[in-house]
Amino acid sequence: MTIFTINEVTKTFTNGEVDEQVLKGINISLKEGEITALVGASGSGKSTILTIAAGLQRASDGQVVFEGNNMTSMNQEEIRKIRATDFGFVFQSAHLVPFLTVEEQLMLMLDVSESPLKKHERKKEIDKVLKLIDMEHRKEAYPASLSGGERQRVSIARAIIHKPKMLFADEPTASLDSKRSKDVMTLIRELTKTLNITTLMVTHDEEMLSYVDHIITMKDGRVL
Amino acid sequence: MKIAWKEIKKNKVRFTILGSIIFLVSFLTFIISGLSNGLSQDNAALIKDLPDGHFYMETEANETYNLSRIDKDVQDNLLAKQKDAVALSIQMGFVNDANDKQHSLAFVTSTDSKLFESVEKGEIVLDRSLEKDGIKVGDILTNNQFSGEFKVKGFVDQAKYSHAPVAFINMENYQEIYRVMEMQLVFIPGTDNEQTITGLQSFTNKNFLNTIPSYSAEQMSLNMIVWFLVVISGMLFAIFFYMMNVQKIGLYGILKAIGVKTSTLFKMMWTQMLVITVIALALSVALSQAFTMVAPEGMPFSLTFENTVQLSIVFFVIGFIGATLSGIQIKKVEPLQAIQQGEV
C-alpha cells in the first residue's frame, strides 16, 4: 500500500540574479514498510528531495502527499506536528543534543511526539529500544563520550522511539567505517521491518544497497 | 523547563561566565549609582529628606532663595492658615571652635516645626560629620558676626546642604548674624495643597532643589553617568544573550527538525535568561547592599534597596529583550538552514 507520494516536485534556488532548478519534476511513491534508497552523483538533488519529503524545506512546485494529505498546502505548525509524531530523521552526523544523556535524548523525543505513554512506560520503552541498539549500558552517557558509531545508533534510536510511520535518513553511514556502516544498516533494516516503518534514505555507498528494497537513481535533478 | 536547566547544568562554565559578566556589570552600575546618590544626598539631604510638599519664595528673588525676603505679614498669615507650614532660612557660614579652628557649614533656622531641629538662643545643633572633626556636645563655638557664643546641644544624622554640614540655630541668633529680619522660604508639606499667593512663587521639592546653585548641573552629570552605564550595561546583556543564542542556532535547528515547538524554544531561552539574570542580580544586590555597610567613612554613598531593585528591573527587561530578539531570528530560520548554519 502506498503511504507516501511525491508528484512533479520542483525546487529552484535563487543564487544572486540566477535561478537554479535543482529538482525538475520528481515523482516517487513509497510503499508501507519498505526501504527505498536514493542514489546518484553529488549534486543530483537526492538530499534536496529527501529534505522536502521530510518537511524540512518546501518544494517550489508539485505535491508531497503523506497518507492522503497534501503536505505542500499545510502551514508550518501542521508540518511540525507531522514531523514530531509521524516522521523520524537520521542525519549524516548524529546531531544529538550535546547536554542530554542517551536516555534523555530518547525521553525528549517521546515528549516532543506527545507520546501517550506514562513516565514509567516511557522508561521501559527507552530500555527496550536501547537493548535493540545494544546501548543499554551507555544510557547515562553524554554524546561527547560516545564513539561515532554509538552516536549514530543513538540517533537511529531517537528517530524510531516514538514509532513513526516514516523514517528519513540522509547518508546515515557516511561518517562511519565499513564495519560500523554495515552494523548501522542492519540495525535500520531490523528496526524498520519490526516496526513497519517506511524508509527513504540517501546513500553514496553501493555496499549499503543490499539492505534496501528499492533503489531510485537520480541525475541532474531527475529520476532516471 | 527541564531541558533549559539541563543545558545550564551541563555547561556550567559557559553560563557561569555569562552570569559573572551580568553580575560584574550590574555591581559596577549599583556602586556608581550609590556614589552618585551619595553625592546628591551630600548636596541636599536637608531638602531631600523632607516630605513632599511645596516651597514658597519671593517672586522678585528670581528663583534665587538667598535673595528671597518673605514679608512678615504674609508669612504669619500662611503659618496661621497652614498648621504644618514652616518658615526657614539657609545661609552658608562658618563657626570657630575652642582652638579657633574654622568649620564651614550651612546655618539653618526655622519657625517651630517637627521638620527642623528646635533650638534655643545660644544653642546649636550640628550635623554628625562635625562630631568626627572633634566637636563634642557642650563645646562652645563662635562666629565673628555673632556677639554671643553657641553651645553645642547635639548632633543629627544626614543634615547636609550644598556639600556642607548643617548647623541649626535659633531664629534670633540667625537674624543677628545675617542682619535680616525676614525669612527666605516657607515650606508647606503635602502634595495636594499648592497655593497661589501674591508675591510668592511655589516650587515642588524637586524644583526647589534645582534652584540650589550647582545642584542641577551636578545632578545632570551624575545622572548621565548612571544612565549611560545602565544603557551600555543593558546593551551588553542583550548582546551576550543574543550571541549565546545565535551560537546555538544549530542546536535549535535540530530541535525544530525533530518537531520541538518554537514556543518551547522561546521558553527555554527565557528560562535560561531568567535563571542567570536572577542569580547574578541577586548576588549583585546583596553585595552592593553589603558595600553600604563597609564603605569608607565620609564617602558619600547612598544606595537604597529600592534603587537596586529599580535598576535590576531595567536590566531584567533589557536581558529579556536581548533573548527575545535572538529568539525571533531562530523563529524565522528553517530547521534545515539552522542545522547547516551551526553544526552540533
What does this structure look like?
- The complex is a heterodimer of chains A (224) and B (344).
- Chain A contains six helices and ten strands, in the order E-E-E-H-E-E-H-E-H-H-H-E-H-E-E-E.
- Chain A has 224 residues and is of the alpha/beta class.
- Chain A has one domain: Rossmann fold, CATH 3.40.50.300.
- In chain A, the strands form two sheets. A six-stranded mixed beta sheet of chain A has the order 6-7-8-3-9-10.
- In chain A, helix 3 crosses helix 4, helix 3 packs parallel to helix 5 and helix 5 runs parallel beside helix 6.
- In chain A, 45% of the residues are buried.
- The mean pLDDT of chain A is 91.
- In chain B, strands 1, 2, 3, 4, 5, 6, 7, 8, 9 and 10 form a ten-stranded mixed beta sheet that branches.
- In chain B, helix 2 packs antiparallel against helix 9 and helix 7 packs antiparallel against helix 10.
- Chain B folds into two domains: 167 residues, no CATH class; 167 residues, no CATH class.
- Chains A and B meet through helix 2 and helix 3 of A and helix 1, helix 7 and helix 10 of B.
- Mean pLDDT of chain B equals 88
How would the global form of chain B be characterised? elongated
Rounded to the nearest angstrom, the radius of gyration of chain B is 28 Å
How many structural domains are formed by the residues of chain B?
Answer: 2
